[in-house]
Design a protein that fits this description.
Chain A has about 110 residues and is α+β, with helices and mostly antiparallel strands. Helices cover about 60% and strands about 15% of the residues of chain A. Chain A has one domain: Arc Repressor Mutant, subunit A (Orthogonal Bundle). In chain A, helix 1 packs across helix 3. Chain B is an alpha+beta fold and about 850 residues long.
């Protein structure tokens, strides 16, 4: 079994980022991975495979719903969208994150 | 949802590939990039799988599967462990189901915790129950405001039996309870058909009514739906059935009929007519008030003190009230006995868990190599512990199933052996309660015998353990420490059980050896109480009819061939704890008896030849004879204890019947219980107001022939009379010791089981040690170490532990002695000889268990085994 603490921390931010991406509208797994990469200007390298357990977990919590649809490239793909609970959660996590970042930035600023 | 995953991942992979192909990569390059970016697909699958709701069950199933495989591979060792655990669980479940049936399951009375039974005790007069009289019911009702309802009932149903005569059926005798009209309101029950008693039923000369029990209604009245309002004949008198009680209500125990009590002025008005006890229901608010029990007892006591002051002619000042919760009254001394037996069976369960733990520990230790390899390969300690717990759970589950099966059989035989005086015991079955108890016992056993030893095994440093486990060159110190604690604890528990069992065996022996005062064990006794009023001649009394009946019958019997002697008696010896208690005083004592706290004696009315028939020797003076007539000098015979301070020729005054001259002294006899010596006073039947109700007969013919002879002779005199309860004096004595014998057999069985378990524990520990130390032993032998010295070295450690455990256990047994002194007779619970002897016994067994494997091993490990290893 891998070290679980590290995974949890990663999962926390990964979930938040997935929710943020989905705030823009529905997307499939590939598009989400791409969006995270692009928005971070490729600073964040997410292993694409790790998205799927996170998506399943969000689905189990009722924050995300899914639907099979034909993609822009003409293939069948599983599309994810926020549920109403997921929308609320996305806003909440965003504001929490901002507070945390601000606080940490203040601590870390040069004396 | 995991089913979508392959397609979803394939799509993702494809998109990534397309992306690179568009940038001009070759097919192979694009494929490689896509695979790297997506990551390990198998671990994605696993991670998604773990989110599933049934993942936990799946893991548990996998653990169980591995456990089953391990168990099957080493089935020999595990089978022994399972068997031992099943025995422990089975016995404790069986005992628990008895406790459940008798003590835990609620009585059929709603709000039973509000019900109290009240009587009096008088320490100056002796250990008897002091009974209440009917007028005291009103005293209780008027003075104690906390009572919702109060009623009175006789302290014993003895003598209230009624003969029910249905048309075309044989007359049957049914236990009947005369009760005051609020009796069922106190119990909180009402008739299933018809109506409850009303105050109008309990007036002097009220029309006679009866409420019948559900059982009587079904068995004797044919379950007739229109029984209410019908007239039935009880002992020759017509009663209207006004109700059929709800099923299960048979209180006082055995009652099949209830009659209104206060229908005669001699009962209702006289304060001297004491034969009752009160049963009351507290107001519901009382149960919530703190120490309500104490307060009620105090109020009752104050009332009785006040009554003693108001009526000095009836009550002595030393009397005080006894208030008992219904449940305790109902179960009596069976309560403490059953709890003790349950405790003993739990000790056995602990002992079997320990033995099982020892067996599994040695398995765990021998699996150190496997476990540590798994730890080295990356298994977490938690996983290893879970695995061991799964094994323990599987073992305990199988053991619990086996235990329930053992319990089922044990309950059946326990019910068969059990003395009949424990209420509700035959109702004991396996039910949901016992199932939970078994589950709890199994869970504790599982943890105790697998996780605890596993914990110690794991805490060893994996690396060093790996080395150690590989070569088994030295002993694991921690494993050995655990084992030592186990051996110690087991010796303590076992010796405690054995000590209690030995004390019970010895007290049973001294009980059987006790001189009951009845030498003729083969003498036949039977109940022959005259019942139907038609037997009483016009103008005569009950007693006169009985006297002439007995005179007539005994005359016939004595002349019959094969009859040595025959006599009548008021209440035969050892007929439960019932009997007549009468206050007595000798004429030289009268001066000092200003208050009424006179000592009481067991009062017996006997015919001539009684002492000869039952085998109680007359030590001085003469037996009663046919000249001790009603009109003659009033005489009495006293027992030896009484004669020691009041010799022959003095006159004794009895609470029943005035002054009597002492004409004889018989040796002491035990009338109420074979373990308790009372004081007995006998009066001749022609001078007593009480009829003789039992016949005793002795002859050269067998019991069957004598019974037939009595039956024939009785029928010749009055065909409506019947004999009942035929038993020899020996059977009465055995019956009296039945409870004790039951306790003794149970504890002996527990003790022997525990001793076997202890021996197998010691055996497996020593055998295991020998295997572990075989290299060392072989070296020692090679260096010229002699066998006896070697064995001494090996077993001394284990036996030292056994000895230490024994000392602790015997200390515990001596300390707990006062708890079970109630079970003992003629032995002290602290008897050092018995305790030491049991210690020596267990030590001897343990010694043999340790010596055998050591002896065998010391012979086997030659230098050859050194070369092999």
């Amino acid at each position: 079994m891998e070290d679980s603490r590290q995974v949890d921390i990663l999962q926390g931010t990964l979930n938040m980022m997935i929710l943020r991406v989905l705030q823009q509208g529905e997307a499939n797994g590939y598009e989400i991975a791409k969006a995270i990469g692009q928005r971070s200007e490729d600073l964040l390298q997410v292993e694409h495979g790790s998205l799927y357990p996170a998506l399943r977990r969000l689905e189990a919590k009722g924050l995300v719903k899914q639907q099979w649809r034909v993609s822009a490239t003409g293939r069948r793909a599983r599309y994810y969208a926020l549920t109403s609970a997921g929308k609320k959660q996305a806003v909440l996590e965003h504001s929490r994150w901002r507070t945390l970042v601000e606080a940490i930035t203040r601590v870390m600023k040069p004396v | 949802m995991a089913d979508d995953l392959p397609e979803e991942l394939a799509f993702h992979l494809d998109e990534l590939k397309q992306e690179r192909l568009a940038l001009g990569d070759t097919e192979a390059q694009a494929d490689r990039f896509a695979r790297i970016t997506l990551g390990n697909r198998t671990s994605v699958h696993e991670a998604v799988h773990e989110i599933g709701p049934f993942y936990f069950l799946e893991i548990a199933a996998r653990y169980v599967q591995i456990a089953l495989r391990t168990l099957f591979r080493h089935r020999g060792a595990y089978l022994a462990a399972i068997g031992i655990l099943a025995l422990g669980i089975g016995m404790s479940v069986a005992m628990f189901s008895l406790v459940d049936a008798v003590l835990i399951r609620p009585l059929p009375f709603p709000g039973q915790e509000l019900i109290r039974v009240i009587w009096k005790a008088d320490p100056l007069a002796g250990p008897h129950v002091e009974e209440l009289a009917y007028p005291e019911l009103r005293d209780l009702q008027e003075n104690i405001t906390e009572l919702e309802y109060a009623a009175v009932m006789p302290t014993s149903l003895y003598g209230y039996g009624q003969v029910l005569q249905m048309d075309g059926a044989k007359p049957v005798e049914i236990e009947a309870a005369p009760v005051s009209h609020d009796f069922f309101r106190v119990l909180g029950v009402s008739p299933a058909q018809g109506r409850n008693f009303a105050s109008s039923d309990e007036r002097v000369n009220a029309p006679p009514v009866v409420i019948v029990s559900d059982r009587v209604w079904r068995q004797q009245l044919g379950g007739n739906a229109k029984v209410v309002g019908r007239l039935i004949r009880l002992s020759g008198k017509g009663y209207t059935v006004i109700g059929v009680m709800a099923p299960g209500v048979e209180f006082p125990r055995g009652a099949g009929l209830w009659l209104p009590l206060g229908v005669e002025s001699r009962i209702v008005e006289r304060r001297g007519a004491t034969f009752l006890q009160a049963i009351v229901r507290l107001k519901a608010a009382q149960s919530k008030a703190p120490q309500s029990g104490d307060r009620i007892a105090r109020r009752v006591n104050e009332l009785f003190k006040r009554l003693a002051a108001d009526y000095p002619a009836f009550y002595s000042k030393s009397q005080h009230g006894v208030v008992t919760p219904l449940v305790e009254y109902w179960t009596g001394s069976a309560r403490i006995h059953l709890w003790i037996m349950l405790g003993a069976s739990l000790l056995l369960l602990i002992a079997s868990t320990i033995t099982c733990g020892i067996l599994l520990l040695s398995r765990t230790l021998s699996r150190r190599h496997e476990i540590n390899t798994r730890v080295a390969l990356g298994a977490s300690r938690g996983q290893i512990l879970w695995q061991l717990a799964a094994e323990g759970t599987v073992i305990a589950t199988i053991a619990a199933a086996g235990g329930l099966w053992i319990a089922e059989a044990a309950i059946r035989s326990l019910i068969r052996w059990a003395p009949p005086d424990i209420p509700r015991l035959p109702d004991a079955t396996l039910n949901l309660h016992t199932f939970w108890f078994a589950a709890a016992a199994a869970a504790i056993a599982a943890v105790g015998c697998s996780v605890v030893p596993g914990w110690f095994a794991i805490r060893m440093h994996p690396e060093s353990a790996l080395r150690e486990g590989g070569s088994r060159s030295s002993r694991s110190r921690r494993g050995a420490k655990t084992r030592n604690v186990f051996i110690l604890a087991q010796a303590a528990v076992t010796v405690m059980l054995l000590a209690i069992a030995a004390l019970l065996v010895l007290s049973y022996r001294s009980m059987m050896a006790a001189n009951t005062g009845f030498a003729n064990r083969e003498a036949l006794t039977m109940n022959l109480q005259l019942r139907s009023p038609e037997a009483i001649p016009v103008g005569g009394t009950d007693v006169e009819a009985s006297r002439s009946f007995y005179t007539n019958l005994l005359g016939r019997l004595r002349q019959a061939p094969g009859v040595t002697s025959a006599a009548g008696v008021l209440i035969r010896p050892l007929e439960g704890t019932i009997g007549w208690d009468v206050p007595y005083e000798f004429e030289f004592e009268t001066a000092r008896s200003s208050n009424r706290a006179l000592p009481k004696a067991n009062y017996e009315v006997v015919t001539p030849h009684y002492f000869k028939t039952v085998g109680t020797p007359l030590l001085e003076g003469r037996d009663f004879d046919d000249h001790d007539l009603e009109t003659g000098n009033a005489v009495a015979i006293i027992d030896q204890t009484l004669a020691d301070h009041s010799p022959l020729g003095y006159r004794v005054h009895l609470g029943l019947g005035g002054w009597k001259k002492v004409i004889g002294v018989c040796s002491d006899a035990r009338y109420r219980s074979i373990t308790a010596k009372g004081i007995d006073i006998f009066v001749p039947y022609l001078q007593a107001a009480q009829p003789t109700n039992y016949l005793v007969i002795r002859g050269t013919r067998g019991a069957g022939e004598l019974t037939a002879l009595v039956r024939r002779s009785v029928a010749e005199i009055d065909s409506r009379q019947a004999i009942a309860g035929v038993a020899t004096i020996g059977e009465l004595i055995d019956g009296n010791a039945a409870r004790h014998r039951f306790n003794m057999i149970l504890l002996l069985w527990f003790g022997i089981c525990a001793a076997i378990l202890a021996a197998s524990g010691v055996y497996s520990v020593v055998a295991e040690t020998m295997v572990e130390r075989r290299t060392e032993i072989a070296i020692k032998i090679a260096l010229g170490c002699k066998r006896p010295g070697l064995i001494r070295e090996i077993v001394s450690g284990t036996l030292g532990l056994v000895l230490t455990g024994e000392v602790l256990g015997l200390g515990g047994a001596a300390g707990a002695g006062s708890f079970f002194s109630d079970l003992l007779y003629g032995v002290s619970p602290h008897d050092p000889v018995i305790l030491a002897f049991m210690g020596v016994c267990l030590f001897a067994v343990s010694f043999m268990a340790a010596f055998c494997p050591a002896w065998i091993a010391a012979g086997r490990y030659s230098s050859a085994s050194l070369r092999v290893s």
